[in-house]
């Protein structure tokens, strides 16, 4: 079984290497190149598309270069939506909720079923979301960073210092046992750390599989600072178990609502 999984991963990496070098190929061309059946290639392409590694068009597929040039903003939309949807179940009626600059964290607003909630965020993109009449929305204020549309700096920090939340949902650039939860932007790391420290009940880390095992520039917190890590089915089992040993509950979303707990 282990050898079989290794061979599958090796073949899928080969597909990505070929597509990156040659930009686009048909299913038939990939089948011939790797000397495997069309049905095998189609299964591989289904997985690679779900992971956002490739873009499929009618009759051919392309390498998704955005995963390299714009890692944080690009990503597997369906998987990120599943992660956000699952995270939404931890929000109770009348909770105060911290949300950071993460697109996955912000997506939780699409799935909330509670009638009343106060949302506190430094993510300016909250302005473009669908607003509920019984929800309260509070922006931290602060210095606007473009193009990410995030508020940072002393004003944002002072706003958060005067607040406490029941729950926080935090996205990041990397998660590892050795180096903790990390982000690319120094000012964002300070805001995120404050959100975590000012949360009283549930601290939720959301990160798709691409970020698990990675380390970015600036540390937000130790992995053990969180109560839950919600990720997707492609998160490596070995790393998920190592992370769970720090005391955090790791939830890998499969085909929603099925989950795997460690």
UniProtKB/TrEMBL annotation:
InterPro entries listed in its UniProt record: Carb_Metab_HTH_regulators, DeoR-like_C, DeoR_HTH, NagB/RpiA_transferase-like, Tscrpt_reg_HTH_DeoR_CS, WH-like_DNA-bd_sf, WH_DNA-bd_sf
Domain HTH deoR-type: 8-63
SUPFAM superfamilies given in the database record: NagB/RpiA/CoA transferase-like (SSF100950), Winged helix' DNA-binding domain (SSF46785)
One example GO MF annotation: DNA binding
Top-level taxon of the source organism: Bacteria
UniProt xrefs under Pfam families: DeoRC, HTH_DeoR
UniProt keywords, alphabetically: DNA-binding, Transcription, Transcription regulation
PANTHER family: AGA OPERON TRANSCRIPTIONAL REPRESSOR-RELATED (PTHR30363:SF44), HTH-TYPE TRANSCRIPTIONAL REGULATOR SRLR-RELATED (PTHR30363)
Protein name: DeoR/GlpR transcriptional regulator
Natural source organism: Enterococcus durans
Lineage: Bacteria, Bacillati, Bacillota, Bacilli, Lactobacillales
């Amino acid at each position: 079984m282990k050898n079989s999984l290794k061979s599958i991963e090796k073949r899928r990496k080969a597909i990505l290497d070929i597509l990156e070098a040659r930009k686009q190929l048909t299913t038939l061309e990939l089948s011939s190149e790797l000397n495997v059946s069309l049905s095998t290639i189609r299964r591989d392409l289904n997985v690679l598309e779900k992971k956002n590694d490739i873009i499929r068009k009618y009759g051919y597929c392309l390498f998704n270069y955005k995963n390299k040039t714009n890692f944080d903003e690009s990503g597997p939309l369906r998987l990120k939506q599943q992660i956000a949807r699952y995270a939404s179940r931890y929000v109770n009626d009348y909770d105060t909720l911290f949300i950071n600059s993460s697109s996955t964290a912000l997506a939780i607003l699409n799935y909330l079923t509670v009638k009343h909630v106060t949302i506190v965020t430094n993510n300016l993109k909250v302005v473009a979301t669908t607003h509920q009449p019984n929800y309260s929305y509070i922006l931290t204020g602060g210095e606007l960073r473009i193009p990410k549309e995030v508020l940072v700096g002393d004003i944002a920090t002072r706003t958060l210092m005067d607040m406490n939340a029941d729950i926080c949902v935090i996205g990041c650039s990397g998660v590892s046992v050795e180096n903790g939860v990390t982000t690319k932007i120094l000012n964002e790391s300070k805001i995120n750390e404050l959100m975590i420290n000012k949360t009283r009940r549930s601290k939720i880390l959301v990160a798709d599989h691409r970020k698990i095992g990675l380390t970015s520039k600036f540390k937000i917190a130790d992995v053990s600072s969180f109560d839950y890590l919600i990720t997707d089915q492609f998160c490596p089992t070995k790393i998920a178990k190592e992370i769970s040993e720090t005391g955090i509950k790791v939830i890998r979303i499969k085909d929603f609502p099925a989950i795997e707990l460690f």
